């Protein structure tokens, strides 16, 4: 089933992007690889990172720029606590991660949410 995931995702994405009468397709409101992030979104993201007390990193390698700079910004600007959820260590793990929860996001994040929102 894992091998079918990309195909299933593409089919869902294509169906979700059809216009109401299904005669055309619209680009979804996501950023594809090699696309630029809108400048206002980038500015707002970095402004939020500068004020963050805690940053939760879920399933990232820390390699995609400029988003990869957000955790460093949070740590440097506000001494944010960095919590990382990943199946394997990332570029952040040894450098800035304060709490590393190794495992699948689908298993760990619901537990975190339950603990936080109880």
Produce the secondary structure layout.
Blueprint: H1 5-16, H2 39-51, E1 54-58, H3 70-78, E2 81-86, E3 99-102, H4 105-117
Parallel strand pairs: 1-2, 2-3
Protein traits:
118 residues, alpha/beta, Rossmann fold, three-stranded parallel β-sheet, 13% strand
Protein described:
Helix content is 40%, strand content 13%. Mean pLDDT is 80; it is low at 1-15. It has a three-stranded parallel sheet with strand order 1-2-3. Strand 1 (54-58), helix 3 and strand 2 (81-86) form a beta-alpha-beta unit. It is of the alpha/beta class and 118 residues long. Helix 2 (39-51) packs parallel to helix 3 (70-78). The protein is built from four helices and three strands; from the N terminus they run ααβαββα. The two termini are 34 Å apart. It has a domain at 48-117: TPP-binding domain (Rossmann fold, 3-Layer(aba) Sandwich). The longest helix has 13 residues, at 39-51.
């Amino acid at each position: 089933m894992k091998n079918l995931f990309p195909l299933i995702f593409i089919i869902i994405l294509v169906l979700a992007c059809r216009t109401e009468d299904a005669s055309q397709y619209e680009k979804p409101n996501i950023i594809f690889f090699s696309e630029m992030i809108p400048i206002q979104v980038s500015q707002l993201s970095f402004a939020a990172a500068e004020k963050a007390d805690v940053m939760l990193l879920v399933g990232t390698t820390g390699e995609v720029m400029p988003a990869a700079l957000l955790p460093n910004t949070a740590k440097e600007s506000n001494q944010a606590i960095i919590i990382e959820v990943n199946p394997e260590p990332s570029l952040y793990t040894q450098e800035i991660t304060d709490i590393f929860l190794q495992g699948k996001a689908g298993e760990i994040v619901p537990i975190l949410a339950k603990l936080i929102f109880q």
